[in-house]
Amino acid sequence: MTDTGQELARPHGNALRLTVLLGENEQFHHRPAYAEIVHRAHVAGLAGASVFRGIEGFGASSMVHTTRLLSLSEELPVAVVIVDEAARIRAFLPELEELTREGLVLLDEVEVVRFPARDAPQGRGEAAGGGSAGGAGA
Questions:
Q1: 14-25 pLDDT, tens per residue?
Q2: Is the dihedral of CA 89, 1, 138, 39 positive or negative?
Q3: What pTM value is reported for the model?
Q4: CA pair distance 35, 20, nearest whole angstrom
């Protein structure tokens, strides 16, 4: 259930995976851009969103950011992953225009395969492990 009490529609079968790749220090109104993306995805009623912090990467600047250096990088890559029905993901894309100045936005067609949780009735469980891996189970 969402904060508004409505149950989220869980995607199954064909869906779209939205991945936003950006630097962890990218800001939107003094807030991390990745946090704002997750907040807006939640408000939009999308099925779920997950943020993954990278350990190494580079983007348009061609500067490699890594955790392997003695002084830890302060601009590590992050990926925000959201999976939902294609129409819902595409309707959310305009939100990203103002939130990501330098980020890369990717869309992939995916097939959602769900395995029932051990303690849930058949056909109503989350992904194995019960978490939100891949952004679809939050």
A1: 999 999 999 888
A2: positive
A3: 0.72
A4: 12
Range list of H helices, the chain: 33-43, 86-99
pLDDT tens profile 28-80: 999 999 999 999 999 999 999 999 998 877 776 666 666 665 555 567 899 99
104-112/27-28 β-pairing: unpaired
Considering only CA atoms, which of 122, 111, 105 is closest in space to residue 86?
Answer: 111
> Of 65, 62, 69, whose CA–CA distance to 23 is shortest?
65
Those residues whose C-beta lies under 8 Å from the C-beta of residue 84, and which sit 6 or more positions away, are 11, 15, 16, 18, 46, 47, 48, 136
